[in-house]
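All the exercises in this workshop are built on plain-text protein records. The record below serves as our worked example for the rest of this section.
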Amino acid sequence: MVAIETDQSTLVSARLPVARGRRRRQLQDRQYALLLMLPAAVVLAVLVGWPLVELVKDSLYSGGLLTGQHFAGLSNYKAALTSGEVQASAGRTGLYALIVLPVELIVGFAMALLFKTLGDRARVLRTVFIYPLLIAPLVAGLLWQYMLAANYGILNQLLASIGILHGDNSILWLGDPTIALLAVAIPDIWLTTSFVTLVLFAGLQALPADVYEAAKIDGAGPWQAFLRITVPLLRPVIAVVLVIRLVDAMSAFAVILIETQGGPQQASTTMGLEIYNTFITYGNTGLAAAISVLFMAAMMIIAFIALKTIWRPGGVTR
């Protein structure tokens, strides 16, 4: 009995240095990882953290850069929340996102599935389809401004050539308040659908083939495989794409500024244009900063809800 207890104590004492060595190694790995992350953390703190602090600080002051600023507390936030123009711009921003996101997701998913099905035969098509990603938003805005022009625009001429438009009738794509928001959404869809396609195609490439083979053996058709295998397995990828594009669409600025400057009759003034006009046109830095803080907080909440709702990584649905 004594010999057994002695052996056990010897075994425990022999394991202690090994456990301590593992803990020390894990601690060293953690410290090494933190050391590698330190430069990026410093850059983020300087380029992101400091401007955010200054933005919140400016939102507590009223006045302009030339007229002088004085402490105003939360009055800028109250003015932003009760402003009819800000509320209208927020509504147009949400509508703009609702126009852009479904089209990009549906078309992008369809093209990703097509590229996956065609395989290597779609190399040239993939290259051509991704080409809009190389174009700057300002250039795209100028391009589509000419294409959507009422008198000499390519789109109206195309519609006239196939008999939809007759005579001197033309659609005022950028001049009609009822369709201006839709018109400025077209370049955004053209620019970024290829990004959605690229990310979803990469996600499709990573899906395990044996799952589809097992489903085929069990008698599942293409539509059932898409709904019960592809979509569930791609949930995390879809969530990331939607959040990125949601934030990008809600902060749309350059294309709209080039095409309509927020007009006509502020019909295409989104939150980005509202903040720009408040700061540049009216010179109210405090109110512009307050609107920016509220807008940023709203986007973070929406992105968090979207991730929690859509991101469900896991298995195949039955």
